[in-house]
Structures are given as C-alpha cells and as structure tokens.
Write a structure and sequence with these properties.
This protein has 694 residues and is α/β, with parallel strands linked by helices. Helices cover 48% and strands 11% of the residues. The structure holds nicotinamide-adenine-dinucleotide.
Length: 694
C-alpha cells in the first residue's frame, strides 16, 4: 500500500506514501484509485483531499517504472486523473514541497488546488526529451493561460507556488498545518455544484495565433537538435485549436512519438547515468563520511585557483598554499579577477563576491593548513614535486584529513605510497576551468578507504559536480580515451585533412569543440610533454609528427596567440593559418603519399570510434565501473553532444557490429596499427549485445 486513507469527519484524506518523493508508481496509483472509489461509496464522505506524506506532494511518474510495462498497467496515470476529475464528490489537491510532472497533472484533474507557499511546481518532462503526457499540455494552459503554461512546459523549470496564484484556490500562510487547513477548505466547498473542472475552461490569450507563431520561432532557435521543445509548443497549441478530448489524443500521440526518438533516449540515459555514477560497489549509501568543513589547496595556478573557487562557491572556507609569495599573490589576484568578471556579466552580486573572497585565504606555511578536512594538491605535474608535497602533508595534516591529488596522469598509488596513510589518499581530477566544469573524476587508489570515497562522492555533489569513480591508470577514463581521439585527428592531417575540416566535421556531429580548437585552448605544449615521455616509456606508440612540428614553431595555442589556428589579440576566434597549412602540406609531401579527400562521415567515425574502442578496454579492465560512467565523463567533461548520450551509448545506437566493421576497415588503412579492436567490443558485437546492457 503506498497511499493511506483516513476519514476526518466528512472528509476523506488520501495521502501518498511512496518515499522519497511520492512517485506515482503502480502501487501508489492503485491505492489512490481505490481510495477515490471507497470515498464515492461511503455515504458519510462529502469531499476528498489528496495529499502527499513526507517531502513532496508528488514528484510525478515513478522513475523506477521507466522503460517497464508497469507504467502502462491499469490504473494508469490517465485513469487516476480521470477518476479524480469524474468524481461525483469534490476532490481537493493539498500541495506542498514538490508538485511536478504527473503530480501536477493529477492536481489539474482535481476540482480544487490549495497549497503552502514555496512548493516547487513544474512540468519537467522536456528535460528528458518528452512532453507532459497525462493531460498537462491541455490542462495547464486552461488553468494558467497560454503564455505562463507554455513557458513552464517548454523550460521544464520549477516555479514557486505563490507565483502561480491562478493555479490555486487558496495559498495558505507558511506556518499553516496543511492537512487540517485543506480539510477545512474541503468542508467549505463540499456542497458547491457544479464541480469546477479545469478542462471546461478556455486557454486564455489575447491573440493566440500570433503568440504561438512567435513561440515557434523562438523555441526552434533555442532547441538545437532536440525535437521535444517544439512538440511541446504544438501540443500546447492544441489546447486552443482543438476540443479537449482531441487535444488529449494529440498529446498522447506526440508523447509516444517522442519516447522513441534517439534524443529522448539519450537524455533518459544521461539522467539515469548520473544517478548510477554515485553508486559504487563496496561503498553503500550508509558508508560513514568524514565531515568536510574546511579545505586547503596546494598550488595556486590555473587549477588550484579554480578548485579554491569551487570550494568557496559551495560555502566551504579554503586556504591556498603556494611556494612563493609572488606565486601566491598572482594566484589570489587571478581568483579575484575571475570573480570580478562574473560580477561584470551580472551572474554574481558584489555582496556574493565579497562573501566568496572572504572564504579564500592564502599562506606559505603548511602549519596553517594542518587542520583542513581535505587538501587538494594541484602543483606541477612532476612526480618528484608532488611526492615532496605529499611527504609534507603527511607530516603536518591532522589525522583523518583527506589527501587528494589533482594529477592528470601520475600514479595515485605511488603518490599514496610516500605517505604513512595511503587509505586517506585519493585522486580528485578536476577539469579546467575547475569552478565551472561539472566533471570530477574520483580516482580510487589501491588503498583508498571506502569512507574517503563516500566522502568525496558527497563532496562532488556539494560542489555541484558529477563525480565519476575511475581506477588508477595513465589518463584515467577521460584523458586516456581522448589521447586516442587526438591521435586519430593527427593521422587525419597526415592523410589530407586540414585542422578546420576535422574540427568542422566533429562540431557538426555536435561536439562543443573539435580536437584542434580544444588543443589550442588547453595548450599544445601539454600534449608535447606527454608525447616526449611516451617516446621513452612506450616507443611503439605512433603519432602524427604534425603536433610536434607545430610546437617546434612555438605555436602553443591561444596563450601564445598562435596554435593550430591564428588568434588576434584579445579574441578567441580561431582563424585558419597559412603557416600551419604549409607545415602540414610539407609534412604530408615528405610522407610520400598523395593526400586524399576525406568526408565528414569518416572523420566522425575515426574520432568517435577511437573513443569507443579505448572506452571498451577501460571497461574491461575495470578502470570504469560501467559504460554509463564513461558516458557521464564525456558528457560533463569533454563536450560530447548530450543528444547522442555519450560515446558508449552512441556506439550502442549505431550497433556494435557496425562499429566493429568500421574498425576492421580502419585497421586495414594507413594507420592501422592504432586499430586493434578491444576484445570486449568484439565479444559484445558477436553476442548481439550493447555496452549498456551488459
Ligand atoms: P600551473 O602551472 O598553472 O600551477 C601550478 C602551481 O603550483 C604554480 O602556481 C606553482 O607555483 C605551484 N607550485 C609548484 N610547486 C609547488 C609546491 N611545492 N608547493 C606549493 N605550490 C607549488 O598548473 P595547473 O595547470 O594548475 O596544473 C596543476 C595540476 O593539475 C597538474 O598536476 C596538472 O596535471 C593538473 N591538471 C591540469 C589541468 C589543466 O587543464 N591545466 C586539468 C586537470 C588537471
């Protein structure tokens, strides 16, 4: 039973009881419909109140029923809403805290709605590439008018209940006890007939045709590749152009269409992937966590500054430690300048700036950070420098402090081994700019404690980041895969592409930025240093020479005003470079083969399947816990197009046999040595399975 039934004198009260947010799953729907029927049959009952126990009225459809036949089992949400709407006795929705999706649609089928202020009211379906499919597109415009309803349905964003007076028959005071107040309201209206129904109203607007025409243009421009926002407009339009029942049927049809689109599937995948990423085997939800009340960061460079800001933005006081006063002053000035830029853009008030700056301190002395609950090391990427820092931390930090490293490529286990507390050492790999980027790769060392992992996963959430756990290997999940992608981009230059052609193709596929523009932003010298190291450690790995030749020209990227592209002072726009074109042409000439014309499709396959193949290895080695974690890394840290759901999900939609066949073709091509298919990919393709249904 996941809804309770009680009598308050002549008023029946049905209370959803399906934690955490009273999702309208099958058991809850059944109990609610039973309650409504029982109230009809009981001659003592004059009116009915529907409300929710705990932290919500209702968060909507039960996501645990997504992709399961239960969602379509009677009583469906439609049936529940109709039972309320057709009740011969008045039904009052008593709303508090959260009223979203199906919960709001149900309340629109009730005859009356009462609420406490501050309830979050939303139809968020568009965020999963869908539209409200239980009458929301037809009833909300009739309740709130065309304009407000369209805004809510197209954006999916919550609106506090007190800002929607037209939706409610009464907004109580904040300190009112909701159920008794709703019962009193129900008693007051118990005899009023006819029963008011939202469906009988008109969707108000002075000039609906002009408004909708304008909305179509506006929404189409903002929707990008996603079909759902425009479908929302069309179904809301039906609330004015069609009779109610026809509108409902149209809504149903468009909902069923959207549910099958790859864009909606990708968004739903990403939604679940984010939740899954927080679940780590061996680290159950009740694993004890260490308190994080103050933080420290070692190194106030690009990353250290951003990481300090991420802490301050979450309200956590943080002290930055540097090796010289000059570097410290420079680092703190950069933090201030970055915040001031945000204030100029109007995204931060001067008061917020002052509060955040006040949370950030600086020091040159380890003793001053000794009491921090977590310290994140972000010094130069050199093993000896980092190991010296960790020896110091081991000597001074209080017992139980978490010692984290932001290393991109070094071995977390080796770093942990220089301390006497390897269980407290963990990798926290932030992405640049660290105060903005959502991804946090959490690197689990051999000895990392489960409570440390649980604490850092919770901290990621507090910092508003998506934490994804990775095992120890060179590059972890994200950078290990991107190396193969960038390697292919280089080979494409050897075979006849220009940087702009490669970037253009992958950006048309949907990436935020192609590999060459990305390298110019990050600094081409970083990859150069890595390749020099690789040349010693693993000389068998081949690369296009073009990236080294570029660095030999001093073209390190945006920071030197020239990289794969030319840049004008103070402008990040990438302009194709005659010098680079000539360098590449001379290199290709020297290779002794004729350049060929390479189409967008091949560029995309070469780059994306390079990610997929390496991702399969990472999965098989257990570096990533699941395919969806890899997708999360790429969606939140590398600008992979959200509407394609991440590289592994995308490979599943293409079909692994097709991916494997393409890899086979590339293996027979000019840089075939880079294309041994991952055994896991070959096995899943043979078994007719995908990465995400392992
Ligand atoms: P950076 O050169 O901008 O900053 C390093 C800072 O550390 C400098 O300010 C330096 O003065 C300071 N420092 C050096 N030795 C120190 C010591 N012994 N004690 C205190 N401070 C010391 O480098 P960065 O780009 O911020 O990178 C820092 C770390 O983050 C590296 O491990 C890097 O691999 C990693 N990382 C970088 C990026 C990126 O995009 N730049 C992304 C993820 C991770």
């Amino acid at each position: 039973m996941s809804a309770d039934y009680a009598l308050y004198g002549e008023i029946a009260v049905i209370t959803f009881n399906n934690p955490p947010v009273n999702g309208l799953g099958l058991a809850t729907r059944t109990a609610a419909v039973d309650g409504l029927r029982r109230a009809q049959e009981d001659p003592r009952v004059k009116a009915i109140v529907i409300t929710g126990a705990g932290k919500a009225f209702s968060g909507g459809a039960d996501i645990r029923e997504f992709n399961s036949p239960k969602a379509l089992t009677e009583p469906t949400l439609h049936t529940l809403i109709r039972t309320a709407e057709e009740s011969a006795k008045p039904v009052v929705a008593a709303i508090h805290s959260v009223c979203m999706g199906g919960g709001l649609e149900l309340s629109l089928g009730c005859h009356y709605r009462v609420t406490l202020p501050g309830a979050q009211v939303a139809l968020p379906e568009v965020k999963l590439g869908l539209l409200p499919g239980a009458g929301g597109t037809q009833r909300l415009p009739r309740a709130l008018g065309l304009e407000t309803a369209l805004d809510m349905i197209v954006s999916g964003n919550p609106v506090p209940s007190e800002k929607l007076p037209a939706l409610f028959d009464e907004v109580f005071g904040a300190d009112v006890d909701l159920v008794p107040a709703a019962v009193a309201f129900a008693a007051k209206i118990a005899d009023v007939r006819p029963l008011p129904k939202v469906r009988d109203r008109q969707a108000a607007h002075a000039d609906p045709a002009a408004f909708l025409q304008d909305a179509r243009g506006r929404v189409a421009a903002a929707a990008g590749p996603f079909p759902a926002p425009l479908e929302c407009v069309e179904t809301v339009a039906a609330a004015v152009t069609m009779p109610f029942e026809a509108g409902l049927a149209f809504e149903r049809e468009r909902f069923m269409h959207l549910i099958g689109t790859p864009e909606s599937k990708a968004l739903r995948h990403a939604f679940f992937a984010e939740r899954e990423a927080a679940k780590v085997p061996g680290v159950p939800a009740d694993t004890p966590r260490r308190p994080i009340e103050r933080a420290a960061v070692v190194g106030a460079g690009t990353m250290g500054g951003g990481i300090a800001m991420a802490f301050a933005n979450a309200g956590i006081p943080v002290t930055v430690l540097e090796s010289t006063q000059e570097a410290l002053d420079r680092g703190l000035a950069a933090i201030r300048a970055s915040y001031e830029g945000t204030v100029r853009k109007g995204r931060l008030t001067p008061e917020q700036l002052a509060r955040r700056i006040a949370l950030i301190g600086g020091t040159l002395r380890y003793e001053e950070i000794a009491l921090a609950d977590i310290v994140v090391e972000a010094v130069f990427e050199q093993a000896d420098v980092k190991e010296a820092v960790f020896r110091q931390l081991d000597a001074v930090m209080k017992p139980g402090a978490i010692l984290a490293t932001n290393t991109s490529t070094l071995d977390v286990d080796r770093i942990a081994a220089v301390t006497r507390r390897p269980q407290d050492v963990v990798g926290t790999h932030f992405f640049s700019p660290a105060q903005v980027m959502k991804l946090l790769e959490i690197v689990r060392g051999r000895a990392t404690g489960n409570d440390v992992l649980a604490t850092v996963l919770a901290l990621a959430k507090k910092l508003k980041k998506t934490g994804v756990v990775a095992g120890v290997c060179d590059g972890f999940i994200g950078n290990r895969m991107i190396e193969q992608y960038v390697r292919q981009a280089g080979f494409l230059l050897n075979e006849g592409c220009t940087p702009a052609q490669v970037d253009g193709a992958i950006e048309r596929f949907g990436f935020a930025m192609g590999p060459f523009r990305m390298s110019d932003l990050a600094g081409n010298d970083i990859g150069w240093a890595i390749r020099k190291r690789r040349a010693v450690e693993r000389p068998e790995i081949t690369y296009s020479r073009t990236a080294d030749l570029l660095c030999e020209l001093g073209r390190f990227g945006q920071k030197t005003g020239a990289g794969w592209y030319d840049y004008r002072p103070g402008d990040r726009t990438a302009h194709p470079s005659a010098e680079v074109d000539a360098m590449i042409a001379a290199h290709v000439h020297g290779l002794g083969h004729a350049p060929r014309v390479i189409g967008d499709a091949e560029v995309v396959e070469r780059l994306v399947y390079a990610l997929v193949n390496e991702g399969a290895r990472i999965l098989e080695e257990g570096i990533a816990l699941r395919a969806s974690d890899i997708d999360m890394v790429y969606l939140t840290g590398y600008g992979f197009p959200l509407f394609r759901g991440g590289p592994m999900f995308y490979a599943d939609t293409v079909g692994l046999p097709a991916v494997l066949a393409a890899i086979g073709r590339f293996a027979a091509g000019p840089h075939g040595e880079a294309w041994q298919p991952a055994p896991l990919l070959a096995r899943l393709a043979a078994e007719g399975r995908g990465f995400n249904d392992r």
